[in-house]
Amino acid sequence: MKQFAARVTALLMVWTLVGVAVPATPVSAQDGVRLNRTIELLESGQPAFGVLSADYSLANARTLARSDLDFIIIDMEHFPFDVESLQLFLLGMTDKRLIQQKGNLQPNVMPFVRVPATGEEEMLFQAKQVLDVGVFGVMYPSISTRAEAERAVGATRYPQERGARDFEPVGLRGRNPTNAMWLWGVNDYMQRADVWPLDPRGDLLAIIQIETVEGVENIEEIVSVPGVGVIFIGPSDLSASMGYPPAAEVEEAIQRVLSACLAQGVPCAITTGAGSVEQRINEGFRFVTVGFDGGISAGVTNALQRGHAAAGR
Q1: pLDDT in tens, 214-253
Q2: Residue 14 resides in a domain
Q3: What are the backbone dihedrals phi and psi of residue 110, each rounded to the nearest 5 degrees, phi first?
Q4: Residue 233: which CATH number?
Q5: pLDDT digits (tens, 9 = 90+) for 17-38
Q6: What total of structural domains would you count in the chain?
């Protein structure tokens, strides 16, 4: 840690010599700054808007980082689980100009990853891999029981100190924060890297997907698991699990999940587009995707503008 601090000091000296404006307080020392802007929005009661993306290119990373989105979910469930490309993508999202302008290390657009493993499969090693390169949360597909939700939360967090009030769900993540610490730019990563809202200071989101009949039936138990940050409904897979019934039956299941989330105070998420985003925001959804895109298309822009209008932003 002393070596890290020395490097930060040396870097600030270089910036000063070459005429780069330096914040009055080193960004790594700004303990009051929450790095995860999406959590900041959710804490204040505002909805967050994002996209699913499978384009790992540096050009797309730069485009998304400077967009009006609040988050992106990098989809490694249906596309290659490629951690090396993910790491380059995350570095490509690092906007030095924004850091200089804001005077802190909080990105405007937060990167999350959807891992391939469903609740019935071994998810720990995949979560550990993507967290260790610096993502700010993990989306776990097809969680159907309380036990699966607890394991997902545990995979997102480190083991806690003995006697800690938030000891459970027991943290399962192995301790090697070097790369994530470098990407986040902080020397207190171990303190920040816990799940919100279980740890009010946490900067990680455990995003639990409900995509099965069993998940809907168990939603009251799932949503009560400490550390669940967002419940994300997957309408397409949910419809398949229900046997492709009429749309009204799928909507009834969606509303049951939403009601459980609202009752528990847990942000509820769903996929939307220009034709549905206003409805979903008005219903109480607080975390919505407005498209699946390798960039910011006209459709995504339209849906985002409509969502912002519905949210009063």
Answers
A1: 999 999 999 999 999 999 999 999 999 999 999 999 999 9
A2: no
A3: -95, 130
A4: 3.20.20.60
A5: 333 333 333 444 456 789 999 9
A6: 1
